[in-house]
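Case 258 in the screening queue. Each case pairs one protein sequence with one candidate compound; here the compound is coenzyme A. For every case the pipeline is the same: read the inputs, emit a complex structure as tokens, and attach any notable structural observations.

Predict complex for case 258.
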Amino acid sequence: MYQTILTEVKAQVLHITINREDKLNALNIQTLADIKNAILNTYDDASVRGIIITGAGKKAFAAGADIAEFANFTVEEGTKLSAEGHATLRAIDNCPKPVIAAINGFALGGGNELAMSCHMRVCSENAKFGQPEVNLGIIPGYAGTQRLAQLIGKGRALELLMTADLIDAQTALNFGLVNHVVPQDQLIAKCEEIFAKIKNKAPLAISSIIRCANAYYEKRADGNNLEINEFGNFFGSEDFIEGTKAFLEKRKADFKGK
Ligand code: COA
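Case 258 output:
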């Protein structure tokens, strides 16, 4: 079904593994399409409650866009590539299920942009982050100029974007680029631990949180108003009734996503 990624659902979590280890999981056009399709296929799949994206091997999450592929691109082809990258990352950002990037090594250029489009980031101790595009005479093409500043602040972002400096896992943690740093052999387990908590919560509330948080950054929409409206809407949901009832009856809620 997919040419460049492996997919497996375990305990209601879809694991997507970028499977180009010999190229440090560089993102070519096919990889962007495969990831986008895998993510979009979960949108209406109630059996999937979360997604983990990682890279094959122990060295790289993704070392960027596939430089070999785009080396000879025209302006039109370059523009199209960027649009396709944006579309894939938007599909992740807007995914109604939480997406965690499990960063198992280099997250450079498009790799870091892919990680930043996920809702959370967990990395292994050997991870390295950066936007080295200026080394190639280009700029980030998959929203790196936007999301890096959102996550670590404009001053730090501009320094990394302009110097192409790489930062290590601990610095990424200090900057707020990642949520957790763990030994490599505990990387997926840490993501699963986060999902174990989220899976007990009401699915509609989880999707709503993603929409409201995203609204702040997109289209200059007012996330506060969206939150107010969505909060009100929950009063008509079955899960709201079940959730409040369960609390009052001192038992665990059994949410149905309705
Ligand atoms: N695009 C295409 N191929 C890539 C790649 C990329 N972004 N990053 C790595 N590769 C390939 C290498 O060409 C090499 O392929 P080969 O074995 O056929 O020669 C293979 O992956 C292994 O990479 P290599 O450079 O030999 O590993 P290394 O340990 O010496 O260096 C990096 C690791 C990450 C520092 C180095 O690969 C690198 O700088 N990659 C490009 C990072 C980048 O600029 N990304 C932004 C792109 S816009």
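Case 258 observations:
- The longest helix spans residues 75-93.
- The first strand starts at residue 5 and ends at 10.
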